[in-house]
Design brief:
By secondary structure, this protein is mostly helical. It folds into 3 domains: 3-82, no CATH class; 88-167, no CATH class; 170-321, no CATH class. It is built from 14 helices and 6 strands. Helix 2 (31-39) packs antiparallel against helix 3 (45-54). The relative contact order is 0.09.
Length: 326
């Protein structure tokens, strides 16, 4: 092989990328902008431009590309021309509103939060599947999913809906039926349990307590639903550290102090442990609970109102001592 031929070969097929790199190309990026980025991680920036010209390549496809060490300029051109992206793991945790969810997702994919929200609230999808702009939140199960960076808002939503349908497998549906609840009602109760306790080990206990109240026809009297009402009035960023007596009188269908049964929709996005906590609720005789001041983050449970009142006095004294008034 002559030196000239060898040099041509090296330009086209020789190792060019000297370190692994993730490269993002948007639909607005020009070829020159992309080549500038390539130039920072290749041995010879000019060689990439030369190969691209020889292969008549000028329009890289948008995407998230993993450039592996040792890739040639020919590999790069072929990758960008075909749009051969590498999928990535997208994850989200509990988000209280569609707006917050859209913002979290927009941080990870090319689509912006406005486009995502428009898709989530699309009227035909909602009516076809019997959702509202509030209840649609239930199809988003906090987990890790695989996506391409350029996934459209519509395809993202459809995959979430498909995953939601798969989540509600025959086993979970059967457990819901044994509780005399629909899958949507399980999710609503799970959203309350989610907000009531952050402890996975407590969730089946809390779920069992609320189920006991439902069976007796009692109002749930769940503070998280009252906080939900307050935030609807004051805004999602309004901080509520203490529920006051006056709050219990808020006129809202979500206020479980004045309305029996479950609220109309979920009040937050429950994670899998909360949903399964309801489906596998612990059977016990507890009817009351109160924050545990001796073990913060946990609760003390009671079977009688007398015992609960003692727990509540201890809790309120602790709150007063810390001067937590709201």
């Amino acid at each position: 092989m002559t030196l000239v031929v060898f040099n041509y070969y090296q330009k086209i097929f020789g190792p060019s990328v000297f370190k692994e790199q993730v490269l993002f190309i948007t639909a607005e990026n020009s070829f020159l902008e992309v080549s500038d980025q390539i130039g920072k991680i290749t041995n010879s920036p000019g060689a990439f431009l030369w190969v691209a010209a020889k292969k008549n390549f000028r329009n890289p496809k948008a995407g998230r590309y993993v450039l592996e060490q040792g890739m040639s300029n020919n590999d790069l051109v072929n990758m960008f021309r075909s749009g051969r992206q590498t999928p990535f793991k997208l994850s989200f945790n509990n988000q209280d509103t569609l707006e917050k969810l859209a913002g979290r997702i927009a941080e990870q994919i090319a689509a912006d939060s406005t486009a995502l929200l428009l898709s989530f609230k699309e009227e035909h999808f909602l009516s076809k599947n019997n959702f509202t702009t509030k209840s649609i939140l239930q199809i988003f199960i906090p987990n890790t999913y695989e996506f391409y960076w350029t996934v459209s808002p519509e395809k993202f939503k459809q995959k979430m809906f498909s995953s939601y349908q798969q989540f509600w497998n025959p086993s979970r549906i059967e457990k819901a039926k044994k509780l005399n609840l629909t899958t949507e009602e399980v999710t609503i109760l799970a959203s309350i349990v989610q907000k009531e306790t952050a402890q996975n080990t407590e969730r089946p206990i809390v779920a069992g307590l609320y189920l006991n109240r439902l069976k007796r026809g009692w109002p749930l009297q769940a503070d998280p639903t009252v906080i939900y009402c307050i935030k609807e009035k004051k805004g999602q960023d309004y901080v509520v550290k203490r529920v006051l007596t006056v709050d219990l009188e808020i006129n809202s269908p979500y206020n479980t102090y004045i309305h029996r049964g479950l609220p109309p929709t979920l009040i937050a996005m429950p994670d899998i442990s909360s949903i399964d906590g309801v489906l596998n609720a612990q059977k016990h005789n507890y009817l009351y609970m109160c924050a545990n001041v001796d073990k913060l983050g946990y609760h003390v449970f009671a079977k009688s109102l007398v015992q609960h009142n003692k727990n509540a006095i201890k809790y309120h004294n602790w709150m007063n001592k810390l001067r937590i008034n709201r």
